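WARN no homologs supplied; continuing
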Amino acid sequence: MKSERRFADLSFEQAVRKYADTVTGVCVMRLQNTADAEDCFQNTFSKLWFKSPDFDSEEHLKAWLIRVAVNECADYMRKNRRAAVGEAFREESVDFAFDRSDMSWALSRTPSPYRDVLYLYYCEQYKVKEIAVILNKKENTVKSLLKRGREIIRSIYGGEER
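OK structure emitted
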């Protein structure tokens, strides 16, 4: 009998099902393009399969997947810099629907370092300390990015500066 790979007591299929939305969200928020996000999504889960790291818990697995997804997106942007520069500011490059009442609409208009922290804090419900570990930043840096990111979001929605 062949033993099945386990990731924090989940099968590979269970891990993909459980964390697909999280990894997709990270990739789409970073790349602003679903086709590119799909590539990074696949690369993230391929790394999980082939590297088969040991995880202490499902939270550890989730944090690892987010970190790998962030790195995959950064690698993708580095490799495709020329193409991305031309498309970065064109509304058409974002091929998923937005509504002004949806936070993803505002996050898509927020510069990357702020977008990452805001997404992890508000959408994935991570605490500042956890975000610092995932993004390999100091806690005070994360707090500053959150504060400035909130100001950017407020200005995007037309709110008053405090």
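Confidence is low (pLDDT under 50) at residues 84-101.
OK
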